[in-house]
């Protein structure tokens, strides 16, 4: 028997001592790659120029699939694919909104020093910057960031279920209702 989808109230998590008061947290269950893309599209509705989004998850977790949804929701040009071999791709807006800068920091080991070589701090004010594998590398680019962690559901399962945790840090995300995604 399939478990019912949690309501927005059930997905919401109140800030705790582990999170400063200006932190917003929500959780969602995602059943398929199509639903991950839809999550990205809904999340795009909350994003604005200057937003930094960090994506964390193992290989194949759905980071690029979520970013495809972000690109669709932001109305950007070009197919959103993994930037693993080029490190970063810029997708200009087709709708007058912010560009999407999609970065894969997997092969970058030097933290912010290597990230600075990409000039993300220049792109950040007018773009939405999405960084896969950015933990420990991009947090200093902005006090305000959205961290999306994607976990595969483990156990006796062969499906594509994922648990997604969205955590907004800083004044930008204080009071933003992440449960709407």
Described by strand count, sense and barrel closure, the largest sheet is: 8 strands, mixed
Principal-axis shape = globular
Percent in helix? 10-25%
In whole angstroms, how far apart are the ends?
25 Å
Task: Estimate what percentage of residues fall within beta strands.
Answer: 25-35%
List keywords for this structure.
5 helices, 25% strand
Q: What does this 3D model show about the protein?
A:
This protein is of the alpha/beta class and 181 residues long. It has helices at 8-11, 33-44, 63-74, 112-116, 120-123, and strands at residues 12-13, 24-30, 52-56, 88-91, 99-104, 127-132, 145-152, 162-169. Strands 1-2-8-7-3-6-5-4 form an eight-stranded mixed sheet. Strand 4 (88-91) and strand 5 form a beta hairpin. The two termini are 25 Å apart. Residues 1-17 have low confidence and may be disordered.
Topology (elements, then pairings):
Blueprint: H1 8-11, E1 12-13, E2 24-30, H2 33-44, E3 52-56, H3 63-74, E4 88-91, E5 99-104, H4 112-116, H5 120-123, E6 127-132, E7 145-152, E8 162-169
Parallel strand pairs: 3-6, 3-7, 5-6
Antiparallel strand pairs: 1-2, 2-8, 4-5, 7-8
Task: Briefly summarize what is shown.
The chain is an alpha/beta fold.
């Amino acid at each position: 028997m399939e478990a019912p989808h949690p309501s927005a109230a059930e997905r919401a998590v109140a800030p705790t001592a582990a999170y400063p008061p200006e932190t917003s947290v929500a959780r969602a269950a995602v059943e398929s790659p199509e639903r991950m893309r839809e999550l990205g599209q809904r999340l795009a509705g909350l994003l604005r120029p200057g937003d930094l989004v960090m994506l964390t998850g193992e290989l194949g977790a759905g980071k690029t699939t979520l970013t495809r949804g972000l690109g669709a929701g932001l109305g950007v040009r070009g197919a959103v694919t993994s930037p693993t071999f080029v490190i970063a791709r810029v997708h200009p807006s087709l709708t007058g909104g912010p560009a999407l800068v999609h970065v894969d920091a997997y092969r970058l080991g030097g933290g912010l020093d290597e990230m600075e070589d990409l000039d993300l701090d220049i792109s950040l004010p007018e773009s939405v910057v999405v960084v896969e594998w950015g933990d420990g590398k991009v947090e200093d680019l902005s006090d305000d960031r959205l961290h999306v962690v994607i976990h595969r559901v483990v156990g006796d399962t062969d499906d594509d279920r994922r648990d997604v945790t969205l955590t907004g840090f800083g004044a930008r995300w204080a009071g933003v209702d992440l449960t709407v995604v």
